[in-house]
Amino acid sequence: MKRVFIILAIVVMCVVGGFAVSSVYGPQPPEENNIANNEDSDVKGDKVSKAIYRKITPEEVKNMQTKKESFVLVDVRTQEEFDEGHISGATLVPSDEITEAANEKFPDKDAKIVVYCRSGGRSQMVANQMIEMGYKNVYDLGGIIDWPYDVVVK
């Protein structure tokens, strides 16, 4: 009888714990291609999209390159890191210069912009900065350390 009580207590704790976890992490809305639905209504009631932080995979970027899609690839590392190896077609704008240089280098706020760094920290920060600056289609590739394709070395 004691054994049954212990097993029953463990089962109850697991069930209660599961409910606690689901209430904290609950069902998440489905995402389509890592892009959250982020729409507001303007004064007239028309739907207006707001820029949001979005991730993109190396495979998606490589596919865009292969298809010759229009996008801007921005390396936000230092000049030295860039010279050691960068993704073909990338423009160097170090992360600490993005707020000063972005408007001049990337005047089209609707252009698709993909940013990357070494490991993903700076690219996430820059992607969010660019969104705050009014860029609408900013994607974070993360780090070049996750890029499985060839790189250009100077």
How large is the radius of gyration? 22 Å
Full CATH superfamily name of one domain: Rhodanese-like domain
Kindly name the structural category. alpha/beta
CATH topology of one domain: Oxidized Rhodanese, domain 1
Q: Main β-sheet: number of strands, strand sense, barrel status?
A: 5 strands, parallel
Molecular shape: globular
| SSE series | HEEEHEHEHEHE
State the distance separating the first and last CA atoms. Answer: 75 Å
Average pLDDT, rounded to a whole number, is 81
Q: According to CATH, what is the class of one domain?
A: Alpha Beta
Number of strands: 7
Question: Topology, please?
Answer:
Elements: H1 2-25, E1 39-41, E2 47-49, E3 54-55, H2 58-66, E4 72-75, H3 79-84, E5 91-92, H4 98-105, E6 112-117, H5 121-132, E7 137-143
Parallel strand pairs: 3-7, 4-5, 4-6, 6-7
Antiparallel strand pairs: 1-2
Describe the structure.
The protein is α/β, with parallel strands linked by helices and 154 residues long. The chain has a domain of 94 residues: Oxidized Rhodanese, domain 1. It is 38% helix and 18% strand. It contains five helices and seven strands. The chain has a five-stranded parallel beta sheet, with helices on one face. The longest helix is centred in the first third of the chain and has 24 residues. The radius of gyration is 22 Å and the shape is globular. The N and C termini lie far apart (75 Å). About 18% of the residues have low confidence.
